[in-house]
Write a structure and sequence with these properties.
heterodimer; A: MetI-like fold; 16 helices; 73% helix; globular; B: mainly alpha; MetI-like fold; 0% strand
């Protein structure tokens, strides 16, 4: 406080709306005022340059280098051109990881969005306890993802998990699906858990969007006979379109980089059945200690994200105009 | 000034009117609503149930914890207590750092006339959302290794603020845009400079936005797994998320301490939802809380 007060006194009366003094003296305090204003932004800019700008640039460079544990001792990271990209792409795991990334993203988003929208529509009609229930819905999203992964591992356990025990009670189901340990089911299981994690976010944002739609539109619509499903397609959906686009694009960008859930549930296994570009990059850097290949994979992920970034920013631009 | 609004404005007139009136009864809706939430929260119930079982390796966990036992928690606290403390220190540090960096920036972006720079900076803030965590971790690991920041509180606090700072800038700016310029100008007329106007006028008015930002930054840092996994290498410096991961990394033959740890790691989220419900809801929608 003491420091700020002295600065405030220094810039004092000449700042802001105070009447300008005649002559040259007017300029200096105003210029200083400008410097103080810019100083508000400096810490944030420095932080973003160090923790977002630097990593992106550093990864770009590392992608062209042989960067291994030896680099940490010798400080040498020889240039290898596109060798890291060649190694990454020719790895048999890469095709699998790319396909999984696509399936994981599309599957997660489709599930989260559809269920989230249904829940949002349901809660849009207010009823007794609706507020409390809506808050409780947030819990899966607020707890650490690794805690959620831990409990799902036990729920999905082949022999003693509660899911298979329940399925066992049903007369027409036979066998115990190995949710997390069979190559054909593991990706499905991971997607289901990620859908569960994403529902609260989707439902809450879409609920917010629904609340913004003026009640008058529905009143006018009902006069013209638009109720139920018709009201949804003619009024709700078009009005919600902006929010929907934001939710979907954000969802894709966030889902592409998911790591916690997959590492917590399957570690990318069994036999790379749940490996995505993100986990593959982690694996190459922090398990194989081949940071160059890990960086190359990270860069590929950034390029995929960038395609969506264009859409994302265009959406935000459009939101301005409205 | 309104070049790139990122978040939607606070609740509309219609919504606010609705929020103040009593909800209609509709019992059928309430029952269905309870069923939906019960299904969604079942995994969390299961976490609690297993954590209270005397032996978590039982072939079939009972549906209810009738054989109530705190043994799981005793083991969890004995083995993970230090990790919980590490997470607490790191998360509180991230809150302080994030607010100190984001609040002035949010104010500047909302009220100072920087022209196109405002758009450029907001664009940069949005772009950070596209950077995958693994890219940041990959680059930070070698930088931290050189700087001696691996396995330090400072290193984790800095990295764990990466989610909170952009979020807080966006959220607080949306709120601060709503502060009338006349209030701030009045402070200038009284002889305050930009710093004093910020500290004495803007921050107190923005209390709700600051609280919301702080809560979410805390939860982001508390739940961080990737930086915990990549930027620490010793057992002495291990956040709770990594402690939990080391539990489930291999074959688990006793689930009660594991689930007890999961419950303990979820406590901040549960506590915040109970104590600060309206701030949490505001944070998710990214809108501003009206004071």
């Amino acid at each position: 406080m003491a420091e700020s007060r002295s600065v405030a006194t220094a810039t004092g009366p000449s700042g802001g709306l105070a009447p300008p003094r005649p002559g040259r003296r007017r300029r200096r305090p105003v210029a200083r005022h400008r410097v103080v204003q810019a100083a508000f932004l400096v810490p944030a800019i420095v932080y973003m340059l160090l923790f977002f700008g630097y990593p992106v640039v550093k990864n770009l460079v590392m992608g062209f280098q042989e960067y291994t544990t030896r680099t940490f001792y010798t400080g040498e990271a020889p240039w290898v051109g596109l060798a890291n990209y060649a190694t990454a792409i020719s790895d048999p795991v890469f095709d699998r990881a790319l396909l999984n990334t696509g399936l994981f993203t599309v599957g997660s988003i489709a599930g989260q969005f559809t269920i989230g929208l249904l829940i949002a529509l349901f809660f849009h009609k207010r009823f007794l306890l609706s507020g409390v229930l809506r808050s409780l819905l947030l819990l899966p999203w607020l707890i650490p993802m690794i805690a959620a992964s831990a409990v799902w591992r036990w729920i999905l356990d082949t022999d003693n998990g509660v899911l298979n025990r329940t399925l066992g009670l049903l007369p027409f189901v036979d066998g115990r699906p190995a949710w997390l340990t069979s190559t054909s089911l593991a990706l499905v299981a991971v997607i289901v858990v990620n859908i569960w994690l994403g529902i609260p976010f989707n439902a809450t944002i879409l609920y917010g969007g629904l609340q913004e739609i003026p009640e008058e539109l529905y009143e006018a619509g009902s006069l013209d006979g638009a109720t139920g499903a018709r009201a949804f397609w003619c009024i709700t959906w078009p009005q919600l379109r902006g929010v929907v686009t934001v939710v979907l694009v954000l969802g894709v960008v966030y889902t592409l980089k998911v790591l916690d859930v997959i590492l917590g549930l399957t570690n990318g296994g069994p036999a790379n059945a749940t490996q995505t570009i993100s986990t593959f990059s982690y694996h190459m850097s922090f398990r194989e200690f081949d940071f160059g290949v890990g960086a190359a994979l990270g860069n590929i992920l950034v390029v995929i994200s960038l395609v969506f970034a264009v859409v994302y920013l265009r959406v935000n631009r459009r939101a301005v105009d409205e | 000034m309104t070049a790139v609004p990122i978040t939607r404005r606070a609740p509309t007139r219609v919504a606010r009117r609705a929020a103040t009136s009593r909800p209609p009864r509709r019992l059928g809706h309430t029952i269905l609503g309870v069923v939906i939430i019960a299904i969604m929260l079942f995994p969390l119930y299961w976490m609690l149930n297993v954590s209270l079982q005397p032996a978590g390796n039982a072939a079939a966990t009972p549906w209810l914890p009738f054989d109530f036992s705190l043994r799981g928690y005793e083991t969890a606290i004995a083995e993970q207590g230090g990790n919980l403390l590490t997470s607490l220190i790191v998360s509180l540090g991230a809150v302080v750092l994030s607010l100190a960096i984001a609040a002035p920036a949010a104010y500047a972006l909302a009220h100072f006339r920087f022209g196109t720079w405002v758009s450029v900076l907001l664009f940069a803030v949005l772009t950070t959302q596209m950077v995958p965590g693994i890219v940041v971790a990959n680059a930070l690991y070698s930088a931290y290794s050189d700087l001696g920041l691996l396995n330090t509180y400072g290193g984790l606090i800095l990295a764990d603020s990466a989610a909170g700072i952009p979020f807080s800038i966006i959220l607080m700016r949306a709120f601060m845009m709503g502060i009338p310029a006349s209030i701030i100008e009045a402070a200038y007329v009284d002889g305050a400079g930009p710093i004093r106007a910020f500290l004495a006028v803007v921050l107190p008015i923005s209390r709700n936005a600051l609280i919301t930002s702080a809560l979410f930054t805390f939860l982001f840092a508390w739940g961080d797994f990737l930086f915990a996994l990549t930027l620490t290498t010793t057992e002495s410096m291990r956040p709770i998320t990594l402690g939990l991961y080391s539990y489930i990394g291999g074959f688990v033959n006793d689930w009660s301490p594991v689930m007890a740890t999961a419950v303990l790691s979820s406590l901040p989220a549960i506590a915040l939802l109970i104590v600060a419900q309206r701030y949490v809801a505001a944070g998710v929608t990214g809108g501003a809380v009206k004071s």
